[in-house]
Structure formats: C-alpha cells, structure tokens
C-alpha cells in the first residue's frame, strides 16, 4: 500500500528532535507541521520571515497576512517572531537550521537533488532551496518515488538542473524510507504491503537492501 502525502509527512515528523530548528519546503514538507510528535518542541522557520510556524489554520483561524514561503496561510505559536527575508536567509546561511525537509523532482544515488527547474516549463523558481541544502545540517527529501508517467525519480544521476550536489541525507517516498550513505542508497523501511523487490524495481539508482528492513509505522 503506497503511503499518502499525509502519511509521508507523518513518517518524516518522527525524524524531528527536541530543540530542532526546522525549515519545511513547499508541498508535502509543509504537512509535517501537523504531525509533530507530542513531547517534542521544535521551532519551524519559513524563509519569507517567520520563526515559530504553527499547524495549518482552521477556517476560523485563517489570517491572509500570515503566510509561509509557499504563500499558504499558516498559524503562529506563542513566542513567534516576524522579520525580513534578508534576516531569514542570514539564519539559514549562518548554519542555524538543524533540519530542512524539501520536495524534489529528482534525487540521485550520491544524494544530489534537483527541485527547482524543468527546462522549458514555467516554475516558481528556486526560492530558498539552494541556501537550505548548502547550510542545513540535515536534509530530508519528501517526494513521490514514481513520476506521473511511470518513471523512477530516484536516479543514478540527476538529469534536471541541480539544486545541490551530495547534500541529501534521507529520502521518504510513498514506497520507502531510504538513507543516503557514503556507499550509496540503503533501503531502511518499506511501506505496508510493498516488498523490497518492488521498491528495487521502482528505483533506477542502485539500491542496497539489508536484511533488517522494517515496515514504515503508521498511525
């Protein structure tokens, strides 16, 4: 059973550590804010100038002036602060973000990522992605394993323009949790009902499958 977008975000939320400063990219990553484990205190940062991002608002909580970098309305938590985007990028470039979660169009077996441009198509641009992958201490990619036309998005080498080279630490998809190691990609967890062999066939890059794989916990 392939994971939903929400379940991918829920699994990634388990990677958060108490006291982390975390930046969540556009798309699936923003959903992580709704699944922060109880007892864990993290501070979410948005590169448009907000520290202390809360979960998505209910209809009664929507304030059009409070948005994240993807222009989605968000909530704030007690102690949140607002500042210029230049100050926000100074935080990122200064190495003050512990973990970033980003979407991707492609990732390769060396941990390189392409997530900002498809030649010939209109896209929003790189945003803060290049700064984040260069400066964050840990990078997790949240993405679909297979593209809409049935092709693997985890490749021996990225074909699209790169966002960063050798920067990704972990990949979480609808099928699997994969670590990027000095020796290449290593399968750690499989989605319920999805076999390691099915994940291998869905992965164009070389994938090591150790004997101690576990099923991705849900709920």
Our Rg estimate from Cα atoms comes to: 17 Å
| Large-scale geometry | globular
Could you say which structural class the secondary elements and strand pairing correspond to? alpha/beta
* Biggest β-sheet strands, sense, barrel: 11 strands, mixed
Summed over residues and divided by their number, the pLDDT gives a mean of 94
Total strands: the figure is: 14
β-sheet strand percentage = 25-35%
Q: State the helicity in percent bands.
A: 10-25%
Order of helices and strands: HEEEEHEEEHEEEEEHEE
Task: Output the keywords.
single chain, 219 residues, alpha/beta, 4 helices
Write the layout of secondary structure elements.
Blueprint: H1 5-13, E1 21-24, E2 43-46, E3 50-53, E4 76-82, H2 85-93, E5 99-102, E6 106-108, E7 113-114, H3 129-135, E8 138-142, E9 154-155, E10 170-172, E11 176-181, E12 184-190, H4 196-201, E13 207-208, E14 214-215
Parallel strand pairs: 1-2, 1-5, 5-8, 6-9, 8-10, 12-13, 12-14
Antiparallel strand pairs: 2-3, 3-4, 6-7, 10-11, 11-12
Question: What features would you describe in this structure?
Answer:
This protein is α/β, with parallel strands linked by helices. The chain is built from 4 helices and 14 strands. The strands form 2 sheets. Strands 1, 2, 3, 4, 5, 8, 10, 11, 12, 13 and 14 form an 11-stranded mixed beta sheet that branches. A hairpin with a 3-residue loop joins strand 10 and strand 11. The longest helix has 9 residues. The chain is globular, with a radius of gyration of 17 Å.
Brief overview, please?
This protein is of the alpha/beta class. The chain has 4 helices and 14 strands. The strands form 2 sheets. Strands 1, 2, 3, 4, 5, 8, 10, 11, 12, 13 and 14 form an 11-stranded mixed beta sheet that branches. A 3-stranded mixed beta sheet has the order 7-6-9, with no helix packed on it.
